[in-house]
Structure to design on (211 residues):
């Protein structure tokens, strides 16, 4: 399990708006391969450099801004990460426009799939956000495995309803040959809930959250 830092949301308590969500996304990108203290020591400067992580302002940043930041010792001078944050702002705004808000976007994803699938979706959508970093982002934004909607609820209801149905009366001549219904493997029940693989939310620490 990731270790919760003071700047992270508690389980089930989510960012107040789209800018706060994007700030956590950017922080995750900058944290990849670095310890939390490295990013924390530069966070105030990074926040000023990236317009308080307002994606609407970040999308207007150009190559001249990237060059300027690369010479600023107060920020994390990694071209790939800086460019990723700018590109992610464009993708992020498009998602917000389509979904209404980033929180609504995540709610839709979790309504359709389990935690691991959502991690893969985010990793494929945003730059410089590998699966481990995507899981860290969700963790920092208050999304935990225990607060993700149960995707197995409908399956369980269906099985209960099926169990209450009266069994069909078998013909006497064929009663002995009717096979018993197969037992549902426990692994399928776990998969329905959307359990996160240990590689994503196992024993990792923040320092190991690399892309």
């Amino acid at each position: 399990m990731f270790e919760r830092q003071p700047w992270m949301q508690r389980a089930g308590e989510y960012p107040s708006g789209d800018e706060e969500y994007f700030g956590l996304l950017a922080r995750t990108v900058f944290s990849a391969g670095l310890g939390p203290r490295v990013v924390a020591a530069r966070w105030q400067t990074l926040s000023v450099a990236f317009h308080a992580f307002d994606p609407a302002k970040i999308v207007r940043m150009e190559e001249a801004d990237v060059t300027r930041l690369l010479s600023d010792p107060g920020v994390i001078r990694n071209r790939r990460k800086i460019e990723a944050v700018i590109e992610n702002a464009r993708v992020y705004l498009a998602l917000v426009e389509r979904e209404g808000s980033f929180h609504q976007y995540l709610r839709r994803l979790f309504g359709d799939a389990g935690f691991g699938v959502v991690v893969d979706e985010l990793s494929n959508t945003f730059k410089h956000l590998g699966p481990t970093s995507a899981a860290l982002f969700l963790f920092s934004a208050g999304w935990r495995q225990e607060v993700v909607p149960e995707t197995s609820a409908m399956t369980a209801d269906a099985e209960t309803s099926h169990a209450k149905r009266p069994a069909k009366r078998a013909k006497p001549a064929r009663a002995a040959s009717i096979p018993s219904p197969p037992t549902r493997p426990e692994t399928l029940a776990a998969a329905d809930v959307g359990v996160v693989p240990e590689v994503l939310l196992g024993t990792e620490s923040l320092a190991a959250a690399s892309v």
Summary: The chain has a mean pLDDT of 78.
